Amino acid sequence: FEATEIMVASQSNGEVTSSFINEGDVIKMGQLAYVTDTVQLHLKLKQLSAQLKALLIRKPNVSIQLEALQVQLKQAEHEQNRINKLYASNAATAKQKDDADAMVKLVRSQLQATESGLSINTNSINEDAQPILIQMEQTRDLLKKCNVYSPINGTVLNTYVEKGEMATVGKQLFKIAYMDELYLRAYITGDLFAKLKLNSVAKVMVDDGKGGFKTYDGTVTWISNKAEFTPKTIQTKDERANLVYAVKVKVKNDGFIKIGMYGELKL
Q1: Which pLDDT does position 234 carry in this prediction?
Q2: Tell me, what's the pLDDT at 92?
Q3: Is 111 within 8 Å of 70 (Cβ atoms)?
Q4: pTM of the model
Q5: Burial bucket for residue 92 (CB in 10 Å: 0-12, 13-18, 19+)
Q6: Does residue 58 carry a pLDDT above 70?
Q7: What is the model's pLDDT at position 67?
Q8: What is the DSSP string of 82-123?
Q9: Taking the CA of residue 183 as centre, how many other CA atoms within 13 Å lie in the half-sphere pointing to its CB?
Q10: 209-213 long-range contacts, Cβ below 8 Å, gap at least 24?
């Protein structure tokens, strides 16, 4: 019998600070298995946060800086309206009207120029902040990768590091197998090969240790497309054939079947 085995590797560099699994443990998908050192990454994140804060402090307060000009514009427009009314009743000169119109135009120009400058300054600071924000996201991602979780429900077959040892990116930490479904690798002779189809049902028998067999329902999931010599470890009741075809039969495991156990296949 074989199982689906997964080698879980480290995605970060650093000392293994915590180990939560042992060989033979049954663990759940998403369960924390290892933690590697995160001190340098936390310090880098604090440094980036400080840089971002220092940069954003330079961002101008647009509403406050425009408030004085907006008040001036309102006053200039009020004076313009007053002069226009006086001019309409021949109580003000053309020069007074022209001066009032020019003042409104001047203040509006100053307001637009200030708005444009503040906008450019704000956009520039926002652009400068983007690389820092990206570096912060990268650092947070690296921090997450310091926590190593189980990718599946399964049994821990082997562990390769202990607390205090160094982990590097790609270094294998542990091997886990999905034990709820196992695969019997069996070998059939050529006369049965033509009759066998994928997803067909088969009976799998396992020695129960009491002189009998436990029987399981299985499903054929893989059939080799080429013949091979019968492995020497395979014993059958019939005379051994020179050439056989390998097949895999999936069986739901009730906890009795173990990796490496032998079984018999009945088609």
Answers
A1: 53
A2: 85
A3: yes
A4: 0.69
A5: middle
A6: yes
A7: 87
A8: HHHHHHHTT-S-HHHHHHHHHHHHHHHHHHHHHHHHHHHHHH
A9: 15
A10: 213/264
